[in-house]
Design goal:
Elements (H helix, E strand, L loop, with lengths): L2 H22 L6 H34 L3 H19 L6 H34 L2 H13 L6
Helix pairs in contact: 1-2, 1-4, 1-5, 2-3, 2-4, 2-5, 3-4
This protein binds fe (ii) ion (FE2) (2 copies).
One fe (ii) ion (FE2) binds next to helix 2, helix 3 and helix 4.
């Protein structure tokens, strides 16, 4: 299994979480509850981006380093991570809701760019290596690939 397939599966879980939060956030009136929910998403999201940085993007550097798509994805990781980290310092309920909804939209757009542009480029550039990176993904996540 390719690491890009595993990452696509992770995107799917985040889409489900974002959908749930898009429906839930407007009804929540507790800042603490919102921050707990945001943290629940942020933790695995940082793990997702961290694994992309450390494995997939690092492997792509010799081929795409310094070029648009890879650098854009890296800077979006920083933006998403920075905004999620900053949520904890917001004390205004409406501002917190708006920022949370906004950054989930940014994350969705980021995922779409990876799915439509970066992952296909990775397939072209390092197609064979994606399988061994898939094993690294499984070890990192504690997922058994069987056999
Ligand atoms: Fe990413
Ligand atoms: Fe991703």
């Amino acid at each position: 299994m390719k690491i890009t397939d595993a990452l696509l599966g992770e995107h799917a879980v985040f889409y489900a979480m974002f959908d749930h939060l898009d429906n839930t956030v407007p009804k929540i009136d507790s800042i603490d509850e919102l921050k707990s929910l945001a943290a629940l998403v942020a933790r695995p999201l940082f793990g997702h981006a961290g694994l992309e940085n450390a494995e997939l993007f690092a492997a792509l550097d010799p081929f795409l380093g310094g070029q648009g798509p890879l650098e854009v994805m890296r800077s979006e990781h920083e933006d998403i991570e920075g905004t999620f980290s900053h949520l904890d310092q917001i004390d205004d309920l409406e501002e917190l809701k708006n920022e949370l909804v906004r950054i989930m939209r940014v994350a969705r757009d980021h995922f779409k760019k990876e799915e439509n542009v970066l992952f296909p480029m990775a397939n072209q550039a390092i197609g064979e290596k994606l399988e061994s990176l898939g094993e690294t993904w499984a070890q990192t996540r504690g997922v058994s690939l069987g056999g």
